[in-house]
Write a structure and sequence with these properties.
Helices cover 67% and strands 0% of the residues. 39% of the residues are buried. GO terms for molecular function: GTPase activator activity; small GTPase binding. This is TBC domain containing protein. It holds the Pfam family RabGAP-TBC.
Length: 344
């Protein structure tokens, strides 16, 4: 039987990390529940949330409590409006799932059982249904490996299938560039290149040390980007990141990447074995349980504007076009190394 965390997800955390969660993370969650209870009471209910207020942003950055996360994520994403505007859409689409391309359906069937294999926090059958409707509703994407992880995280928080589907679709439509999960994966390739530029800019010594071992950041950055950390960090940490990601947008992902590397720079630079480096980074990922330190580091990074990210993204696009880095075979190989067999 696989070891599960307190949220019901499989984990490879060390005993030290488990103790940190018991002594720090869970008591802090209880404190956050009280803070949010008082806040919601002061505004006469979550229906009166002002998503653009500085106070709300500050509260979200400190973490949304489990009791409020489902409703607030739906509110931020606009799930309730979509459901009201499209009554019966989910059920009718599910009935029409036989229209899904057989190759896409086969890939979904391959991926669902190995998405957080052993987790007890969501129903695999519900994830399957959500992915079926997503494939029908977004034909330009259909399905891409890694989306199953996003669907499982959303479902574990929101619980019900229909709002979870809309949350997934709205997140992919509004938070990721158009060709992120499309067959070309061009925009994903752009962000991979952007991450490399960011690391060389923000952590030049670390970048040189890692390059000397012939390590390509694509090995870890692919999972960070495609699953928004959900197949890398402990799920409690992932939920804390997603709270701010959903409110503030994709820049949070890049802030967290830089923060994670800064927090672990000394240990990564100390590794002089190219065979051990991937294992070291994986161990650091699965034991990223100090959420406060991670997020405070992320938000302390200066000169991290949307404009600067836009400049880096344009430079990345230029590099990809000039050097032919966006090859589909390379992306498929990357997906297979992270998520398992592809239906090819």
């Amino acid at each position: 039987m696989k070891k599960l965390d307190y949220l019901g997800f499989p984990t490879q955390m060390t005993d030290e990390s488990v103790i940190h969660i018991a002594k720090v993370v869970i008591p802090r969650r209880i404190k956050q529940e009280t803070i949010w209870f008082d806040y919601v009471k002061s505004i006469n209910g979550t229906e009166n949330l002002n998503l653009k207020s500085k106070h709300f942003k500050k509260l979200v950055r400190a973490g949304i409590p489990d009791s409020e996360r489902s409703h607030i994520w739906c509110k931020i994403l606009g799930v309730f409006d979509k459901m009201n505007d499209n009554p019966g859409y989910y059920v009718n689409s599910l009935r029409n799932s036989s229209a899904i391309d057989p190759e896409i359906m086969e890939q979904i069937m391959l991926d669902v059982p190995r998405t957080f294999d052993g987790a007890i926090s969501f129903s695999s059958g519900a994830v399957l249904n959500i992915l079926k409707v997503f494939a029908l509703s977004c034909p330009e994407i259909g399905y891409c490996q890694s989306i199953s992880f996003l669907a499982a995280i959303v479902l574990s928080v929101i619980h019900a299938e229909e709002p979870s589907f809309w949350a997934l679709r709205l997140m992919i439509e509004n938070y990721f560039p158009r060709e992120y999960y499309a067959p070309s994966m061009f925009d994903f390739t752009v962000d991979l290149t952007l991450v490399k530029l960011l690391i060389s800019e923000r952590s030049p010594e670390l970048n040189r040390a890692v390059k000397s071992l012939n390590y390509d950041w694509i090995q870890c950055a692919s999972g960070w980007l495609l699953t928004a950390f959900s197949n890398s960090f402990p799920i409690a940490t992932v939920l804390r990141i997603w709270d701010s990601f959903l409110l503030e947008g994709p820049k949070i992902v890049f802030r967290v990447i830089v923060a994670f590397l800064r927090m672990n720079e000394h240990e990564i630079k100390s590794c002089d074995d190219q065979n051990l480096l991937p294992k070291l980074i994986k161990r650091l990922e699965v034991n990223t349980v100090d959420q406060d330190k991670l997020m405070s580091t992320a938000f302390s990074i200066k000169m991290f504007s949307r404009e600067h990210l836009k400049e880096l993204r344009e430079a990345s696009k230029k590099s990809i076009v000039e050097n032919g880095l966006g090859s589909q075979p390379k992306m498929k190989a990357c997906l297979q190394s992270m998520f398992g067999q592809l239906n090819m």
